[in-house]
Structure formats: structure tokens, C-alpha cells
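Re: the request from the purification team.
They wanted to know what the chain is likely to look like in 3D before they choose a buffer screen. I agreed to run a prediction and write the result into the notebook, where they can find it.
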Amino acid sequence: MLTKDISEKQFEEDAMEIYEAFKEKEGSEHIATPLSICAVLKLAAKSENVLEIGAGIGTLSYAILAHSRAALTTYEDNFFCIEQLKKNLQMFDGRFKLLTSYMQMPSSRHFDLVIVDGANGQNHDGGYKRFIHDLFSGVYPKIVYIEGVRRPQRRMIRETLRGRYALWVKKILYRGEYKGGTLYYCYRAPWIIREIKNGWNEIREHPRLEKYFSKIKPPKALPLLSDRR
């Protein structure tokens, strides 16, 4: 976790620098956008333990390791991506754990941040159809960031976490429009576990939840990139 304050402009500049570097690398056709990189930089700066699902060639992995002190566990099962990932992260050897099979579960169960950028079980995305369900049945996240739209994963995460968490949902906006990227802030308390029956919608429907969230003041939508080009 970084203790120093970082300005909005610095986050943006760092995100663009990472994007420009990785877009020139082999296998960069599907790397994260500057918007997503900036979001991850902000989240990782306040995290100590991060889980990444679908590392690809390492764009977001690099952002986490280069700009935070967080411990990183990351999944990637594609042989080409694994080779590129190791090459692109060689300067961080010993600072991250790479899981090359989605049949493995992470050794830790508690994460400040979980990033979902793959593992829907379809071609070129890794994992298997029920992986997200199996994983989130056994881990305890504080924040989940879903890179891109990924509707199947969003739905499965909500279904899996319901009953254990109240989820405060925020979409990442650029110039007022949704361009992909969703944040789930996961709140947990004994009475929430007892009373939540219908998942994330209950936040706006349950009077006690309304009162609870009004006290803890969940974060507003993050202003991740300005309208400047």
C-alpha cells in the first residue's frame, strides 16, 4: 500500500505511459485501456493483497507491481501469455505468484482487491464456465473490479456473493458514458449476512441497509480520467 498522496493527473500520466509501453509488445491486441489501467492504479495504491484473474501479457500486473507495494497473485493459463508475462514482469521476480491452472485456488482467501479480466471459459479467455462461481465461493474480497463489460462474470459474481455481502455497485464512466469497467464494493456484517436474501438490489430496498450505508458513506463513482485528451 502506498502512503503518499498521488494526484489525479499523475495517475492518468502513469496509466498512459504503461499503455503506450505495452501496446508495442507482442500479443498486445487485447490489453487494458488507459481508463482501466488508471482505475487499477488507484485501487492498487490502497491495497495490500491483490488477486488478478486473467493476466494476459501483464499490463495490469505491471501497473500493480510497479506502482504499489501490494502482493499480487495472478491467473493465466495460455502458454503464449505465460511466456510474455514472465518476460514483461521479470524485474518483479519474487513479488508475485503466477497460477497457471484455473483448477488451483489461491493460498490466501482474503483480498483487498480482485480484478476480473478473463476466465469465462470461452475461447482465448481461459478458465472454465463455473470458475468465477467456484472462486468467489471461497474468497473474501473488499473490492472487485471487472475490466470491460463482461456481463456473464458480473452476473455470476453477484449471484455467488449474495447472502454474504451487500454490494455497492459503481460503473466506470468516461465523459458521462459507460465504457466498460464495474466496481463492486463488498460490505459485510453479521446482520447483513442474516437479512440479505436477494443480493445487491437489497441495498436500495431494505430500510436498515439504507440506514447502514448512509452512515458508512460508500465511495462515489471514481473520476478516473478527465475529459482531456
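For the purification team: The domain at 32-216 is CATH 3.40.50.150 (Rossmann fold).
Please add any questions underneath this entry.
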